[in-house]
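In this supplementary section we document a worked example of the pipeline. Step one takes a protein sequence of length 201 as its only input; no multiple sequence alignment statistics are reported here. Step two produces a three-dimensional model, which step three serialises into structure tokens for compact storage. The input and output of this example are shown verbatim.
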Amino acid sequence: MKFNKTWVLIPLLIILVVGLSGCITDDLVKTGQTYESNGITFQYPESWQVVNSVAEGSVGAVASKSDANISTVIQQVPSEYGSEIQEACSKNNVNLVKSPNYINLQEVKTTVNNQTVIVHRYLVNEPDGSQKEHVATWIKMTNGQLYVLLFSTPVESYENERSSYDLIVGTFSLVGQSKDNGNSNDILSGISERINKFFSN
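The serialised model returned by step three reads:
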């Protein structure tokens, strides 16, 4: 499986809504609906719904019921990107910077309970003149697999929707992973805290 330079930008074009139905806090409130498929699980807001994504490596996707341009796509990072967070993220960034529409805002690398997490925030200029804001959270799970949780939203919706992303990232885990098994929940709680600080900058 080979990703091209548009890998992280693909959800921008290919998120397909499959149904017509319908502030970040320090303490993550785990409410909403539950996604559980392809070995992963997370919660998402009641105002969002599961959607289909044909983004390469996609293992899950949810989007706002009122605006499909507001979405989060979970992608499994292919083995050719390496087994370490920094290596995989750096390889992806090499492709991102080739696009004249890409504007880097901030990238933060942190360690939570001895596990590395990278949060990358950037803008993409759209062909119609608008801008979309993206936040990619790179996580290495306890099974050794790397995942990217990519949040995409029109810039004007960013402030209102960032708490939705916080909910998704803060509840993301592997299916069947016991809440008392290991420190993954502590890790994800720590990630949520880092994202709170990251968004407030």
